[in-house]
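Recall that a protein's primary structure is simply its ordered list of amino acids. Everything else, from secondary elements to tertiary packing, is in principle encoded there. The following example makes that idea concrete.
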Amino acid sequence: MSFEVCTVQHDHVGEIRFTAPPHNFASSAMMMAIADAVAAMDADRQVRCILLTAEGKTFCGGANLAGDDAVQGAEGMSEIALFYENAARIMSRTKPMIASVQGAAIGAGLGLALAADFRIASPAARFAANFVKLGFHPGFAISCTLPRVIGAQRAAWMMLSGNRVNAEQALDWGLADRVVPAGDLEREALAMANEIACNAPLAVVAVRATLVGELAREVVETMRHEHAQQAMLKNTADYAEGVAAVFERRAANFTGS
C-alpha cells in the first residue's frame, strides 16, 4: 500500500498531512512515518502545536487488512505490535496536537484521532470503534482513550455496538471539539491550532503534562492487553468471517467460534 506523509510549518503550527488513497488505511509503515514527524516537531522549538490532517474524503478508514504490510497473515500480530509501538510514540509527545477529521475515522482511524488532544471535524465526519463487527478486540489504546474523552458509558456503547457516531453526536459527546463546514475545515483547523500556538510555549507544555498525567504509560499498558486479546481472537472463525464480510460487503454470520 502506497502512502505519503509530509510536513509544513505555519509559523508556530507544524502540520503533518498523510495520504494513503483511496481510504487512508493505516499501515505500520505509515504509522512510523507519522510518529517520526511528530517526534521531529516535538523537538523543534519553533513548533508549539501540531496539526494532523489527511487528504481525501476519509480521515482514516482503519488498519490495512490487505497488501504487503497488512495486519493479516502469519506476521499479522508482529505487524500490529509494530503499529502500536509507533502509536505509543505519537502519544508520548509533549506538545498539543489537533486532528482535523474531514470524513470517516474508523477503528484504527478513531485511535489516531483520539491520539490528538483535540478534534475538529466537518459535518461528514464519522467515528466508529467497529472491532466487534470484525470479531476483534479494540486496539490503539482506544479502550483507554475513548472513555477518557466521552465517558465510560458512551465509550462502552461505541465499543460493544460498533455503531458509527456522526459529527453532530460527536460534538454533543465531546468526541469532536468543534464542527465546521467542510469548506472551512482547513482554515478553521489552523486557526484552532494557532489559538494554542500563540501562548507561552513552556507554559503550554507544562499545563499539558499536568492534564495528561500518566496517559503515555497507561496507553502502553492498555495496548499490551489489547494486543494479547487480539492475538487470541485473531485465530477464531468469527474473525475470519468478520474480515471476509467486510471485503465482500455483506453482513457477517458469526457463530461464536
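Strands lie at 4-10, 13-19, 49-54, 97-101, 104-106, 118-121, 126-128, 165-166, 178-179. The CA atoms of residues 129 and 248 lie 20 Å apart.
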